[in-house]
Every structure is written in structure tokens, then in C-alpha cells.
Amino acid sequence: MAGMRWPPEDSEPPQGGRLQAASTAADMFSDDDRSIAADSWSIKSEYGSTLDDEQRHADAAEALSAVAFRASDYSSDKDDQYNEVEESVLGLQSHWDATYADELANFHEHGHVGEIWFGAEVMDTVAVWTARVCLSHRQPHNIDQADFANLELEEESSDAVAKELTSFNVLDIGTGNGLLLQALAKQGFSDLTGTDYSEAAVELARNLAVRDGFANINFVVDDILETKLERQFKLVMDKGTLDAIGLHPNGAVKRIMYWGSVSKLVAPGGLLVITSCNSTKDELVEEINNYQHSLSDTNSNSKEVLGCSPSVSSNSSSQLLFCCLDHIRTYPTFTFAGIEGTRVATVAFLRSV
């Protein structure tokens, strides 16, 4: 579940930074096709077997109850935003199981790495930019509305940089073939873990890591919506996973479950970096703020896009768990109907201490 497949280059122009993600499930697969795909790769691991739809709905309802979700916190406008993204087979685990089973077989036969979601250029850009954000993150008390990626870093030896980056334990959720973690390893990160709910994806990622000289990267079968991970991470990466979750037939509920899980996985003072092709930077910020307001006693009607500010006390009851730290500004832009946007958005969020 690492991300979305790019449409052909001659597809519809981008609209406000959002790309419609592939065809709908009804257009692509019949119910019989889905059943065959699900049966073709049965998931039974130490984390349990594939959940049927009935069980998943029950889990979603339980999660909503646990966070005391109120209808006023997520308005009908927000529901409409989610509904703009059509349901797709890209939101179904059966699709990813079948996809990665094919890619694993292709690797064994031809040595191919499989699909790189959003392309190799975006992946490398995210890795380099994330390393800069992590290095600049050492002195946030000197910055107000932070633009960490553009700060002038003090001159220091490569050994000092490497030591700084190795202090970050990294989690990539929905890792797919694991190549993003390899790109981060090349930047100097060393404590790296990738998770995916597809066993075939994890097996492919392990094989590629060993072949490419990154056998130290740890890969685990785990569903972010029902994570069994107990440790927290200073850096959590998501490249397309939230997009795929949103394409599930019950995507709006599952996105709320996603934020609940991610909130527990990012360590206090840690970073969450999300790359999306279905949401703009402002939409990601609004979504996480709306989720946080639903859990707090603050005014849920506020639509303020919150940035990180040292003026907010860590003991303040009004402080949100995450604030927007920075975003990648170097992606190529496109203009359509007078609106400028990018094909993808990458945003870094800082978790409060």
C-alpha cells in the first residue's frame, strides 16, 4: 500500500494540486474478480488473517467510539471533500496483495524492483529534503514560522551529520518495495523500519534490501489501521499510504483511524512526513487539524491553518498534538483554470513534546 499509480502523462490536467486516482472499482473489477484476487494471496501472519468487511466495519465503529468522535467536528463539508475522491481498487488490500505477489514473482524471475510510487525523482527529493528537515530540527526554538528545509546549516563534518541522522529511528508506513527506506539510508539514516499489510510487499522489500546492500533495514507485516507496533519513532514517513486508505469504500472512517494510529507512533518532538497526490498541502494541514480539534475541547469550528510556534507553551491546553512545520516547495507547478498546483505535496508535521 505504498501509494498511487501515476496516470499517463497526457491525462487530465491537475486541478488545484489534486489528481484523481485511477479508475473506480466498478469500472475495473467485478465482485467475482475481487473475490479471485483476494483468494489468490491469503494473508495469514503473526498479526492475524485478512479481515472481512464486516469485521473492518466493527473495528471502525469501535475506533470512532474510542476517540469520542462528534458529528460537529467533521462537518458535512469535510465529508464532501472525502467523497470527491472516488472509491477504487487501490483502497482494497486484495488489490495490493495481488499486485505485490506479481511484483515479487517478477523480481525472482527478472530482478525488477517493481513500481516506484510517484516516481524515482519524487522519492529522491523526499529523502534529501527530509534529511535537511531533520538536521535543521535541532534548533526550532530560534524559528517562528519555520521554513526548515531552506535554513542555512552550520558547517560541520560529515561524521557529525551522520551521527545526527543516526539518532532518528525511522518508520515508513505502507512501505511497498521499501525503496524509500533505501533512499533514506543513503542520506545517513540507519535505524530504519518499514511496515506494510501485504506479506508479498514485505517479502519483496526484504529481498531488494538484501540485494542492494541494505540488509540492516527491518521490514514487518503490520496494518497501520490496527498496528501492533509498540515503540515510537522520531521520524514517520508516509508516501501514498493515506491516499490509498482514502480510496477504500469506507475511506472517510479509515482516515480517522489512520490519524489515531499515527498519533501514537510519532514520538514527542518527532516528525511526520506525508507525501500525497490526492491532497494539497493545505488540505493535509486542515485534515489533521480537524482530527485534533475533534479530540480536544478547543473550538472545533476553527479553520485556522496552524504552524509551529515556540510561543505556545507545551503545557497549554490549546496546543495541538501536531503542527505544520514545512513543505517541499520545489515540485514543478502547473496551472489549470487559473489555479496553480503540483502533482504531489510533501508536508512535515512536528509532534508536540
UniProtKB/TrEMBL annotation:
<dbReference type="GO" id="GO:0005737">
    <property type="term" value="C:cytoplasm"/>
</dbReference>
<dbReference type="GO" id="GO:0032259">
    <property type="term" value="P:methylation"/>
</dbReference>
<dbReference type="InterPro" id="IPR026635">
    <property type="entry name" value="Efm4/METTL10"/>
</dbReference>
<dbReference type="GO" id="GO:0016279">
    <property type="term" value="F:protein-lysine N-methyltransferase activity"/>
</dbReference>
<dbReference type="Pfam" id="PF13847">
    <property type="entry name" value="Methyltransf_31"/>
</dbReference>
<keyword id="KW-0949">S-adenosyl-L-methionine</keyword>
<keyword id="KW-0963">Cytoplasm</keyword>
<feature type="domain" description="Methyltransferase">
    <location>
        <begin position="169"/>
        <end position="293"/>
    </location>
</feature>
<dbReference type="InterPro" id="IPR025714">
    <property type="entry name" value="Methyltranfer_dom"/>
</dbReference>
<keyword id="KW-0808">Transferase</keyword>
<comment type="function">
    <text>S-adenosyl-L-methionine-dependent protein-lysine N-methyltransferase that methylates elongation factor 1-alpha.</text>
</comment>
<feature type="region of interest" description="Disordered">
    <location>
        <begin position="1"/>
        <end position="27"/>
    </location>
</feature>
<dbReference type="InterPro" id="IPR029063">
    <property type="entry name" value="SAM-dependent_MTases_sf"/>
</dbReference>
<protein>
    <recommendedName>
        <fullName>Protein-lysine N-methyltransferase</fullName>
        <ecNumber>2.1.1.-</ecNumber>
    </recommendedName>
</protein>
<comment type="similarity">
    <text>Belongs to the class I-like SAM-binding methyltransferase superfamily. EFM4 family.</text>
</comment>
<keyword id="KW-0489">Methyltransferase</keyword>
